[in-house]
From TrEMBL:
It comes from the Bacteria. Gene3D superfamilies: Alkaline Phosphatase, subunit A (3.40.720.10). This is Alkaline phosphatase family protein.
Amino acid sequence: MDNKLLLIILDGVPYRNFRRLFGNLEGWVASGEARVWKHRAVLPSISASCYASIHTGVAPAEHGSTGNGNVFRLKHKDVFSQVRAGGGVTGAVAHSFWSEFFNRHPFDYVRDIEYDEPDSKTINHGRFHTMTGYGAANQMTPSDVDLFATLTNLCLRFGLNYGMLHTCTLDSMGHRFYHDCHEMDHACAVMDEMLAPFIPKWRAAGYEVIVTADHGQDDRGHHGGRGELQQDTALYYFGPAEGPRPDSVIDQLQLAPTILHRLGAPVANTMKEMSFLS
């Protein structure tokens, strides 16, 4: 496998926050170096359910993860397994739910916090965090620049064909402060500033890059149900592929087949939606 792609998931960012507060990403859209579309989450628009759908390409009613309290080793084929089947190398820097969904369940703090498993049929190189103790008074989230650097380290050391990064910082901030406030404006701007220096590095290393979120959040910091603020987020694409009209809405179930299509990996027959990039 020669193609390479990175998926960057900034948890819990509604569409309007991306388009209003991420000046670097929007600057690349304005210059033509990136394209952006609205991206609509599955229902329920809760984190674990969305994680599972993003990588399996099937709805929660089918894969069975109905919320954050229902995390287990998924049975469906997923992006990691299909990249491996196509001969690629995979890596993930993310919340521990991702390791449990796509590698091993339950999560072992010592065994699974960091692993390099070249023969794995899913995630070859994993760096995970649990956010144990998370609550309104203490977010328990790593610094995002550390996460971006860790993904870059894995790319350079192991030649990842597919790398995925997931950070909960903005989701946690939204639950804590809600969205129409100085704290949230500042948090989005800081995320944008931290992310921006890494995108040219990843592009120079030959990676296509997708930046998006798993879901949005409403004015009261809630998500899980239906509605524009809870379901809709933005999706930014850096790469040579052709995409749909600017006013198109990307279905979350399109992400898995799109990533596999761009990498030249086999698309599982359970992934029914069409790629939005060609």
